[in-house]
Amino acid sequence: MKKNGVKMIKISSKNVDVFYGKKQALFNINLDIEENQVTALIGPSGCGKSTFLRCLNRMNDVIDICRVKGQIIINDFDINDKSCDVVRLREKIGMVFQKPNPFPKTIYENISYGPTIHGMAQSKNEMDEIVETSLKKAALWEEVQDRLHEPGTGLSGGQQQRLCIARAISVKPEVILMDEPCSALDPIATAQIEELIDELKKDHTIIIVTHSMAQAARVSQNTGFFHLGELIEHGSTDKIFKNPENKKTQDYITGRFG
Amino acid sequence: MNLILFTFIVLLGFTSYYFGRKKAYTIQYTKKRLTALPQFYGYYLAIWCAIPAFIIFSLWAIFEPTIVKLLILSDYSNQGYLDNELNLIYEKTKSLSRGQFTGEITPFIEASAKKYINLRSIAQSSKVVIVLSAIIASGAYAYKRISSNSRTREPVEKFLKAVLFTASLAAILTTVGIIFSLIFQTIDFFKVIPLFDFVFGTHWYPAKAFVRDSSEALDPSMYSDTFGAVPIFAGTFFIAFIAMCVAIPIGLMSGIYLAEYASVKVRQYAKPLIEILAGIPTVVYGFFAALTVGPFLKEIGNSMGLDVSAESALAAGGVMGIMIIPFISSLSDDVITSVPQSLRDGSYAMGATKSETIKKVIFPAALPGIVGSILLGVSRAIGETMIVVMASGLAANLTLNPLESTSTITAQIVVILIGDQAFGDPKTQAAFALGMSLFLVTLCLNIVALRVVKKYREKYE
Questions:
Q1: Between chains, do B351 and A87 touch, taking CB under 8 Å as contact?
Q2: Which one of A81, A146, A217, B16 is most buried, counting C-beta atoms within 10 A?
Q3: Which of B128, B151, B174 is the C-terminal boundary of a domain?
Q4: Which pLDDT value is given to residue B423?
Q5: Would you call A97 and B345 a contact, using CB atoms and an 8 Å cutoff?
C-alpha cells in the first residue's frame, strides 16, 4: 500500500539476533514489512523464518531458552522493550499455526475466546455479531452457521484452519502471522486459504512463512529469503522470483538446493 | 526328592536349549539356510524336553496321594468301617510311617504302615524313571526333528502365546473365585439377617454377636438391631468426603503448578518428592493421624470450647486426604503435561495469559484425565483401612459431626475378623457382606469414572 507514492511500513526489524541457549538461530535481521501487503518468508527448513515470525508477537517468550536481541518496531514502538504489554501486543498481532489447532470447544467458543479475554463484547448480541463477521471473513460462515455449537475439532482440516484464521481475526488484529498455514492441507483447502489471504490483506498486514515457492509467488507482494539464519535477500516478489540479485536466492527458487 | 527332580527338569531344559541351538549352528555350517534364527531351535528343544516331563511331574504330585490312600484302604473294605473311621485309620498309618505315632499300635495299622512306606518308595522311584524317560523320549524326538527345513518358530511362538494366555486366565479366574466366595458367603449372611435390616438398619453393633455361645441354636431374632449398615456406610462416605475436600484442591493445584509453572529444575526435584509421599505405608499415616493430628485437633477444639474426641472423623479424613494428594497431583500433572503444546500456543497467540490459558483451554482439555485421577483417589479413600482403624475409632456412630468418631466399612471388617472366628457364623459372614458392598461401591465408581471419561473424550478430541 502506498500513500503518496511512499511505502507504508508496518513492522520494521532492526539488528535482530535470536539465540536458543548458546546456539544463534538468527543473525542481524533487518527487514521492513509493508502495511496491507502480504509478505512471504521463504527458505529451506531450519533457516530461521519461523523463528523470525515468532519474534513478531513475542511467541518466543514461551520457550525458556530463547533470547531475542535487537529492535522490532511496530507503530513506532519497540515490542522488545520492557514496557511492552504482551497481551495487548498479541491482540494487535494474530497468529495462525502450521497445524490447525482449534481449542477443544465449540465453533462459537473458539471464535469468542479472544474477544472474551480482551473484553471486546458487552453483550451476547455483540458477541454473536463478532462471531458471525469473523466466520464470514474467514469464508467459513456458510459451512458452519447451522452447527456453531458443535465442537470445532469435528471440522475437516481445511475448515479447522479457516476456523483458526477466523479466531485470529476475531480480535481485529492489525497484523496476521501465518506459519506455513497450508502445509497440512490438501490442494483444494490450500486454494481456499490462499484466496482468503488475498481477501484479508485489505484490512490486515499479513506475513506468511511458506515452503511452497509457488504459494509465495501466488499470494505475496513482497518476499524475504532466509538461509542459515540470515536474511539473504528481500524485495518485491516479482523481483525476487524473476530477477534475484543473490546467487543463493536464484538457486533456491529454481530448486537447485533446499 | 521332588525338589531335586524339579531342579533337574529345569536344568535339563536350559541345557537342551544349547543343544538345540548348537545343532542349528551345525546345520547352518553346512551352508544350508535355516527357517528360523538358531535360538528358536534352542527354545523348541527346551520346550519339548521340559514341558512333557513337567506335566507328568505335576499330575503325579496331584494324584499320587489319592491313589496310595485308595490302595491302603482297600485292605479295610468290606469290614463295615465308616468313612471317617477309614480316614482316621489312614491318618494313623501315615503318622506311624513317619515314626510320629504315639497311641496304641495295632497289628493292622503296623501292616498298613509298612505297606504305605513300600508304596511310597515304589511311587517315588517309578516317578523318577517315568519323568526321566519322558524327558529323554520327547527330547530325542524333538532333537531328531530339527533339520534345515523343520518349523520351529511357529511352535515356539504358539507356546509363548499359550503361556501368556494361562497367566491372564489365572488372573481372571482368581478374581472370579474371590467374587464368588464373596457372593456365597453374603447370600448365607442374608439368609439369617434380612437384607432390609442390613441396608436400612441404623444400629451397627457386632459386639452383640460376639457373646453368642456357639453351641446354642442360631436364632435370627437375636440379631435384630445388630447388623444395620447405615452408620458405617455413612461413616465411609463421610470420611472419604473429608479426605477428598483436602486432596482435590491441594492435589490439583500442585499438579497444575508442576505442569505449567514450575521450572524444569523445580519439577525435577518436586515431582519425585511428592511421589515419595505415595510410597509411605498407610500404617505410618495411621499413627501420624492417631498420635499427632488427633490430639492436636482435640487441643485446638478444647481451647475453642468445643468437645472434640481424640479419635475424630476429621483427623482420619484429613490425614487420608494428605495420603491421596500425591496420586491426584502426580496423575493430573501427567494429564496436563500431555495436553498438546499447540493448544497452549494457540491460546497465548490470542493474547491470553497463563492463568486464562489454563482455566479455559488446558483444564477442559485435561478434564477426563483429571476426573479419572479424582475417582481413583475416591476409590482409595473408600478402601483405606489402617488410618480409620487407628485414628477414627471403631464405634459405628451415625453422625455428621466431623469432630466425633465414626467408623467405616473396612474398619468394621477388621473388627469382625480380628481374633477367633467361626465360619458359618453370621458375625463372620457380616464381613463378607461388607466386603461385597464395598466391592459393589467401587465397581459402580469405576463404571461411572469410565463413562465420564468416555463422554468427555468424545467431546474434546
A1: yes
A2: B16
A3: B151
A4: 65
A5: yes
